[in-house]
Amino acid sequence: MPQPLTYQSWTPVLLVVFFLLLGALENLWPLRRLKRSWPRRWTVNLAVTALSFGVGAALVRPLALATAAWAQSHSLGLFPWLALPFWAQFLLGFLWMDATFYFWHRANHVFPLLWRFHNVHHVDPDMDVSTSFRFHYGETFYSSLFRVLQVLLVGLSPFTYLAYEVVFNLATMFHHSNLALPIDLERRLNKVLVTPRMHGIHHSAVGQETNSNYSVIFSWWDRLNLSLRLNVPQKEVVIGVPGYLLPGDNHLWPLLLQPFEHQRPYWRWPTGRASVRKIVAAADPHHLLP
Predict the structure, then answer these.
(1) Residues 184, 33, 200, CA angle at the centre, nearest 5°?
(2) pLDDT bracket for residue 279 (50, 70, 90)
(3) Would you say residue 249 lies in a domain?
């Protein structure tokens, strides 16, 4: 079995290179026109990301790897019990991690306490690669319990966990990017993978659209669970949460305090008007529009 420690040395380099590449490409071929000045947004987003990554590096990854190693050494979980070969454990484990994360992501939208923290990710008034890991450190902290549960129930190997984590991070950067892919290419990719147009709808200022498209790597989970929505043209997508689009809402300190404060009506504009889409652009919600 490959040794997981060898992967921990080069994955940060891979992620940084991919981040910078997407940043350059989305600047050349933008999908949506950005509303805010990017230097200030990127400064705030990277600061929130640094705090989230700090908690992840100190807690989430060590706990997940320790749980994986402990489960393997004690033959705990579904996979050791079934005595599956390594390749089957890897394939099923990878799919298990992505499928269960779909439900975790959905839970962060459904349960009000979890949404308070997850909303920090969504209130970004624009979406590009800098939004990818803009998660409140509190969300990263409590997600560690879910990661432990994911790993423990099936007895996931440390190698499978790390492989999934790398692909998960690459996919997160890709579908948050503001990169305008040729529509025919994106429609083909979207049959399997989550793409920028698909995830752009998930960051829409219309609540019904935000509460769709929860998948991270494979788009299958939204198709299977009837939460897929692709029939919104990107030119009609307004990014953000209407109740939190004031300029001061996206400064660093307000973002860190936001989950602990009284919550405004999320899906109403500052004028009090509800954020809804009156006209459905296409009858088929599975048809990806430009």
Answers:
(1) 55
(2) low
(3) yes
